[in-house]
Design brief:
The protein is mainly alpha-helical. The chain is built from two helices and no strands.
Length: 70
């Protein structure tokens, strides 16, 4: 197996740790920006759309199973 590099830089963090931390901060900041821009209703709408897609995929999977049983 390849060895993982754990080089420390200024501040005592590995590059991986710094990247992970940056992603957490950036993700949170982006979520707050989206929330301010679009509001609560936006999240309700995308949640509903996601739920409908899951329902559709489940129904398609069940249909395929029924056809395979015949």
């Amino acid at each position: 197996m390849a060895e993982e590099k754990h080089e420390e830089h200024k501040g005592g963090m590995t590059v991986r740790e710094a990247g992970h931390l940056g992603g957490e901060k950036g993700g949170h900041k982006g979520g707050e920006s989206t929330k301010e821009k679009h509001g609560h209703e936006f999240y309700e709408e995308i949640g509903h759309k996601g739920g409908q897609k899951v329902k559709e995929l489940i129904e398609k999977g069940e249909e395929v199973e029924r056809k395979e049983e015949k």
